[in-house]
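Dear Dr. K.,

Following up on our conversation at the group meeting, I've run the structure prediction for Very-long-chain 3-oxoacyl-CoA reductase from Nibea albiflora. I'm pasting the input sequence below exactly as I used it, so you can double-check it against your construct before we proceed with anything downstream. Let me know if the numbering doesn't match what you have in your notebook.
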Amino acid sequence: MLLSATLTIVGDFLVVFHLTRLVWRCWCGLRQFVLSQFWQVDVRTFGQWAVVTGATSGIGKAYAIELARRGLDVVLVSRSDKKLQLVAKEIEDLHGRKTRTIRVDFTDGHRIYPAIAEELHGLEIGVLVNNVGMSISDCFAYFLETPDAEQKITDIVNCNVLSVPQMTRLILPGMVQRGTGLIINISSQAAVRPQPLLSIYSASKIFVTYFSQCLHAEYKSKGIIVQCVAPFMVSTNMTKNVAVSSFVKSAPSFARDALNTVGHSSYTSGCLSHALQVGDTNTLIYGQTVGRRSILTSCLSIVPQDAALTLMPDWVWMSSVFIRKLRNLPKLSDGRACREKEKLSEKEE
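The predicted structure tokens came back this morning:
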């Protein structure tokens, strides 16, 4: 009798615990992706200016325009002076906000940052969006198959990795001094777990994720929000402007939804449809942790017959046999894997 009563108590406790956790998770997901459409942080409280890297196309351009729509002046940073002027004019015409442009190529490494610092001097910068990034190849490939490897490796580290802490180093001190600020770092769902045949790109993006989470923990007590955004597929030039659907967001729509999550989550996939595609409820529910299922398996499961790949365990995903099969996909599917790889690497310069 005593044993039966004890087991009953333990069972009741577990039921209540899991139900409570489920309710909490549902509330967090509801708040992050639904209520955030009506309950938003006023970005103007962070400061007068926003700085956006990789701001001339795709997600970066969409963030710049959306921040201007919400009342901020915008500093656009990218490598094409012509595109910078076009985006600046678009923002001024649409929303009447001030703009400044800084033309730099982030693949040039550390030598560009003194010039950026000089251009930013004296501005009250409330928001920094570290968006600039690049992919390393057009197809699934072994590390030693990287084209022009010596230069390409340096370029992707300079662009995807070095740019994030260096831009943060320039702008964070002013935020700390004022006791408020927002830093948004664009990562990728390619970083949720190791990605064989995308090794450098995947590793560069997990740096962004970990750096963001560490920085948020260090500076949230000083009034600074650091948010890591890890999107799925967004229709941009980098993704060959793949058709917008229920699961593929347009860049403006994604930026609007992602900015709504500010203040509700320090780690987000940006929108509800992307969270549902990750294949792990951590991203949708907690908003603080990185899920275990990868964007790549989801990319390959866009067609229904491949949907089972999203359930693939890690030991299969990391096996030599599966990697060889994946590497041969371009030969089997007339370049489909290349196209999916391009969709995966959605950041713009």
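Two things stood out to me. The chain has one domain: 40-344. The CA atoms of residues 330 and 336 lie 6 Å apart.

Best regards,
J.T.
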